[in-house]
Request: fold
Amino acid sequence: MFKRRSSFKIQNYILETVLVALIIIFAFSAPGFFTLRNVLNVLRNVSMQGIIAFAMTLVIISGEIDLSVGSAVAFAGCLTAFLTDKLANGALAMNLEAAIFISIAAAIIVGFGIGTFTGFFRTKFKVPTFITTLALMTALSGAANLLTNGFPITPFPEWYNFFGGGYVLGIPFPAIIFLVSFGIIYFLSNFTTFGRSVYAIGGNEEAARLSGIKVKKVKILVMGLVGALAALSGILISSQIMSGTPTTAKGWELDIISAVIIGGVSLQGGAGRIWSTFIGVVFLGIIINGMTLLNVSEYWQYVVKGLLILAAVLLNQLQDMKKRKA
Amino acid sequence: MSNYKLEAKKLTKEYPGTIALDDFSTGFTGGRVHTVIGKNGSGKSTLMKLFSGAIAPTKGEVYVDGEPVVLHSPLDAFKKGIAMVYQELSLIPDMTVAENIFLNRYPDGDTSESGSKRKKEGNAKKLPFIRWKNVYKEAADLLESMNIELDVYEKVSRMSVGKQQIIEIAKAMSFNPSVLILDEPTSALARHETQALFSLIKRLKQKGVAILYITHRLQELSIIGDTVTVIRDGKLIGTREIKDVSSRQIVDMMFGNVEQKNRPTDLKVSDEVVLQVDKLSSKGLFQDVSFSLKRGEVLGIAGMLGAGRSELLRSIFGADPFDSGEIYMSGKKILYPEPGKMRDLGLAMTPENRKSEGLVQSMSIRQNMCMASMDRIAAKGPLTKGFISQEMEKAFTKEQIQRLEIKLASEEDLISSLSGGNQQKVVIGNWLNTKPQIVFFDEPSRGIDVNAKQQIFQIMWDLSRDNLSCVFVSTELEELLEVCHRILIMKQGKIVEEVYPENIGLEELYARCMEE
Reply:
């Protein structure tokens, strides 16, 4: 009896356990892994994708997907740079600070708008988000290149680097945004009617609708949220590299979805926790960092990442089958 | 040797706790249509599943053409000469008629006798190549032999349900069976489609096939049947020639002597009309439906499957659109109903299918219990709006668990850990938490045990005592007679009659629901 209970508990925290084991292994084997500098480095590296991963978790729980986030990041960075350039150096000759803040706000609003557009297509015309966002992935990448003529635009002053490269009390600024967005979305998913609706819709859309939940509104908002956070991430990247570059964030959508899946969120919708995505994001970040420190070739890193996704899904599936039997 | 095409000898099927079919023996001759009738749960479908190889008998044997057969699977039954057409169609919509008929046993180039025998038996081809010309030719020949005029090149998805049904039968006949079993084939058909189906059945009869026709539609018996076999409580009540028996006698055989129960006498109906429906119509589902519901009343809607009862409730609740007509709640006209709006106006609906429409299986009992009342358990301040209060949620859940006597280990467990009856109570609790004035119960007693059923009736009566109104839809007519103040009879999308349980018996009500 006692044995069954304790093994049941470990099953619930299997990913956390593996993560701790991994940290211990790297701490002993990888030179410089367990230093403050490296820990902060990992945090910064995972932040940009992590911010989006939390919103992606809600999208996947609601039974949808967003493949356009990578392109949306590039597009938002380019849009910010493009607008800043036009406002400050164009006919308006606006002061640079004002131009930057207006551009940032505009990029986030546009990101939100693109997301809600996807949600609208989904709920009004029943176009699967897989298709709409696949189309957007291509279109937004093209749009980013159009805005910049295919080359980086660099209208930013020195201080702009703070958002992507700065520190507050020794912590990288993007990492703070990462933690704050974790907190907000964690709270949203667990303690609000909005979050509860997302789970209900993903679990059984018809039952949710018949309970009077506004399915369309919730879906549109969820897609809007991931769009807005992708834009935020794009702004942070543009600050880190001090330019709007159309080739940034290529393939991020897969990294982000991978992190969510490794965390154990089911692609069938209805189930998953924001905390698991946090672990999934950190897990991926640490494994890449550790292997880099150990001088493992980049190609091997891809192979390991792929196997990791498979193992995570297999684990989930096995647990699911066990639960269903019980 | 008997001349029966299909014969059951002492067939018995036991499940833990119940005997679904009890020592059942009878035979069916070729060239006739044998109708089989019985109310829900009488053992009809168990018998059909035994004949079609879907389940194995506990005792007893099945004989085909005088030979004992052991059926391991539906495919096995097909090979041994029993072809079954199920109520749910199983065609592949994006394939053509011919592709569907010969699915997985397409004619190849092999036209030898052993080749065609192999195909008839449903075995794989010798070579993995399909001769499409032969597929379409054989399909066309088959349809022609049955006098069916259909284009074998047409995609099934573009055909009406009636034509699809005919293709299913053609597919079954392509196995050259001795016995063809049709399970409620007309349940989804329009009237002219039913005519076409009947004339097809009559043609097949002349080929010497024994046809078993399962139905719950009394009026079909004399049109299509030669004999009628009645099952009740898993037992054979009797087989009669249709021409020798009246429909009243058949109803008598179906029900036997039932003791009619009555509702408690303290339930009062006030004169105040809380819901009025005026000439509501939805094309193909229901027409010109008008009725009113009074405060404290339990109103039943009786009718067979497909009569449009659930569709009517769903339209009033705003779950599905309707074409014309008006809905008034407490005298106020409701424009554009939708579930959230109707809920806020005090209407609740526990849907017909609790698994697919009533509950979210991936959520806990507590979360399911507060799904419709989510706004009520959330804070309402301008800044805190939408934040769920855990205490209120727990209180809401606890109240319903006690009120509805739901048996559970922990309210944090997944809803799927509960029995059917307790799940149904959670659906009801979810809606009672919205503090409704009117509750629609759509088949609330389906698939739950006798005790849970009685508890659900109690809940309806308690609601009536609290001056709430209920609409109760059920296929089980005895339930309606036991529970309701008044019963509307719905037939083919129309309300045809209003009856009071005091003035009508079960057999009479059944007959009125069935007869044309």
Observations:
- The two ends of chain B are 42 Å apart (CA to CA).
- The interface with chain A takes residues 317, 319, 339-344, 349, 351, 356-363, 367, 371-372, 374-375, 378, 386-388, 390, 430, 434 of chain B (CB under 8 Å).
